[in-house]
Each structure stands twice: as C-alpha cells, then as structure tokens.
Amino acid sequence: MKSESSFSPGTPAALLLPKTEICPTDDAMGLRCADMIRDCIVRKPDALICLPAGNTVIGTCQALIRMVQSGELDISRVRFVSLDEWVGLSGDAARKTAPISCISTSTVL
User: What angle do CA 34, 4, 44 make, to 5 degrees?
Assistant: First the structure.
C-alpha cells in the first residue's frame, strides 16, 4: 500500500494532518512504516527521524535494517532520535522497561 505525501514547502499546516492507516498484521504495519521512512529519507537524505521507544517499532527497525543491508537505502546521513515515552512513570518503572529503538538497533547495520 503506497500513499503520496501532500507535503511540499509552503503547504498549509491544516493539510499536514496525519492519516490513519489500518494494517492487517504487525509485520505489515512495520513494513508500511519503514516504507514511509524510506520515502522520507530518499527525499531528504539528511533527515532527522524520531521513533518511539519500546517494542512497537521493532518491525519497522527490522524492515529498515533489511533495506540498508540490501543496498536499497542509505542512512549514512540520517540522524535517529528516540521519543521519550516515560512521562508520568516513576524512575523505577522507567528503569525496568528497557526501551528498544533504531538508535540501538542501527549499530548492527
């Protein structure tokens, strides 16, 4: 499933509202997200990509890793940051939950 982005410089903010897409499986969702990230990186090779921490992003990271290893995607200029999802959790709870993100996963690329 592909969708075209309506973003271009000068696009009114009201047109940039996110669209909801429903994927049949977690794997399909991971691949769809990776495709969207790939499209972003192709348009802007020095993109800053913010991904959530936790297990939800694992399928996306795995798909991105496959794209990089196959030569389909070059992330050499991309910067990845992890979204802080720990607001409201006690320090003890945050320490017990090991975040996983492309930041830690990208070291195996």
Answer: 60
Residues 54-79 pLDDT 10s: 788 899 999 999 999 999 999 999 98
Residue 30 DSSP class: H
Q: The whole model's pTM is what?
A: 0.65
- Return contacts of 2-7, CB within 8 angstroms, 24+ apart: 2/35, 5/39
Buried residues in 70-102 as b, exposed as e (16+ CB within 10 A): eeebebeebebebeeeeeeeeeeebeeeebbbb
CA distances from 57 to 10, 37, 78, 90 (A): 30, 12, 17, 23
Low-confidence ranges of the chain (pLDDT < 50): 1-6, 98-109
So what's the pLDDT on residue 52? 82
